[in-house]
Amino acid sequence: MSSPAVVRVFATSQDPDFDAPWQSRTPSSSTGSGVVIGPGEILTGAHVVANGTFLQIQKPSHPDKAVARVKAVSHDCDLALLEIVEPVGFLDDVEPAELGALPKLRDEVSVVGYPVGGEEISITEGVVSRVEVQRYSHSQRHLLAVTVDAAINAGNSGGPVFGNGKVVGIAFQKLTGVDNIGEMVPPPIIRAFLEGVRKGKRPEAPALGISTQNLENPLLRRHLAVPDGVSGVVVTQVEHGGAAHGVLEPRDVITSIDGQPIANNGTVSYLARHRTRFDVVLTGRFVGDVLPLEILRRGERQKLELTLGPWAPLVPRSRYDLPPTYFVYGGLVFQTLTRDFLTTWDKWWNKAPKEFLYHYYMGARSAERTEVVILTQILADEINVGYGHLYNEVIATVNGEIPRDLADLVKRVEAARGAIEIGTTSGGVLLLDSEQVGKAAPRILERYRIPRDRSPGL
Questions:
Q1: Catalytic choice (33, 74, 78, 139)
Q2: Does the residue 321 lie in any domain?
Q3: Which of 35, 93, 145, 178 could cross-link with 160 by S-S, CB 3.0 to 4.6 Å?
Q4: Does the pLDDT value for residue 46 go beyond 90?
């Protein structure tokens, strides 16, 4: 099988340092794979180029490399579109690959790329074993994915999966703990990404902004006045500011979404041949699209429309190509709680503070709080003597008021005069004098070699 459209991607990246959010980690190098999908355009995985500072492309059996840049990226669905910077015309002799249809179960496919350990193209063959909603490890989003029993190894990521001579997926992850089981981004998501790039749509995968519970228990269905023969899921939580805010309520039963009946186990029949999670109907949708719903509210049938919005959990999941958000005040380092900060702990799901993990897994945005503000460290200085034990704490109040987010905390402390009382959820109290903080700021920043007291935008 000849694969001239498959290229190798060389990436230099520099990740932020969440222990010291004003600086970045040492640059690192990695390789991935990609496929020429249009004139001068290369489709690859977002994780291949995340936090990238310099990118190069190499054609098969060709020693020279071209400099590339990211034209568009969707970290949600782990896809990126690259374009050649120079030399101009580097890909003119390459026929772009054609995007195919969603493969069926047991269809034969070939994973093509450049796994580590060699310089030449590697081809592994397998069959499609599953088509359903899976968790994308790069973004922690649950989106449609295709599972294949072909090896996807380091370096293969971002490369194409071919079926009948057409691209039927982009390899993006392998299942841990098992051999020769990999997953690929399917054509419906790839098409939506490329269409979104052409039309200037937002790159995020949309979300409903709700949490739901299955309705397999007969007593629960009767309690919610669900008639016999009707199935669905019950809304348990509505995210403040999300797509469903002001449209759906807790205890609403969603019986149909986008014309698809929802089973009591929370699934729909996708394309009439794959039973999977009901949010599969978001595949190919964009932020701003309108989705029809049918619900039962206190036993009464209603038809509603929902304008899809971006996913906005209380604790943001992995973010890329963005610096951390921080604020240094009187030597106290405040940050927004994010999954990236949690990963500063080894085996963070066990070792990170339990309150942080609770907010990560169970927290929801509300009118009073749209971010969890945390005190991550205390840069020792005479102004904060005695507070050194209060790091890795959630901020509960500033002068008796709950900070809505980090920007709100900054606004409150900068507007305050005289004594400023900052309370943590463990009951800790940090008292600072605004005038003394102003005098100490240059000293602390110089002592700890911090270029500025806050991240851009605060």
A1: 78
A2: no
A3: 35
A4: yes
DSSP per-residue codes, 172-196: EEE-TTSSS-EEEE-HHHHHHHHHH
Report helix, strand or coil for 446. helix
- How many CB atoms are located within 10 Å of the residue 291 CB? 18
Q: Which helix (H) or strand (E) holds 437?
A: helix 434-447
Let me know if residue 96 belongs to a domain. Answer: no
Q: Rounded CA gap, 45 and 32, in Å? A: 8
Structural domains in the chain (count): 4
**Contact (CB, 8 A) for 262 and 268:** yes
Which position among 33, 74, 122, 157 bears the catalytic label? 157
Contacts of 192 (CB under 8 A, 6+ apart): 283, 284, 285, 286
Average pLDDT value for the chain: 93
Q: The whole model's pTM is what? A: 0.90
Angle at 340 between CA 77 and CA 453, to 5 degrees: 125
Nearest Cα to Cα of residue 233 among 244, 221, 241:
221
20-40 as b/e, with b when 16 or more CB fall inside 10 Å?
bbbebeeeeebbbbbbbbeeb
Task: Give phi and psi for 257, each to the nearest 5.
Answer: -135, 125
Q: Name which residue leads in pLDDT, 431 or 173.
A: 431
CA 450/CA 458 separation, integer angstroms: 16
Q: Please check whether residue 287 lies inside any domain of the structure.
A: yes
Domain that holds residue 349: 326-447
Q: Which candidate in 30, 33, 47, 359 is catalytic?
A: 47
The confidence score (pLDDT) of residue 103 equals 94
Q: What is the tens place of the pLDDT at every residue in 115-156?
A: 876 777 888 889 999 999 999 999 999 999 999 988 777 778
Our answer to whether residue 157 is catalytic in this structure is yes
For residue range 217-247, list pLDDT tens digits in order: 999 999 999 999 999 999 999 999 999 999 9
Q: Who contacts 361 (Cβ-Cβ below 8 Å, separation ≥6)?
A: none
Does the structure show a pLDDT above 60 at 1?
no
Q: Is 78 a catalytic residue?
A: yes
**Single residue among 20, 52, 86 that ends a domain in this structure:** 86
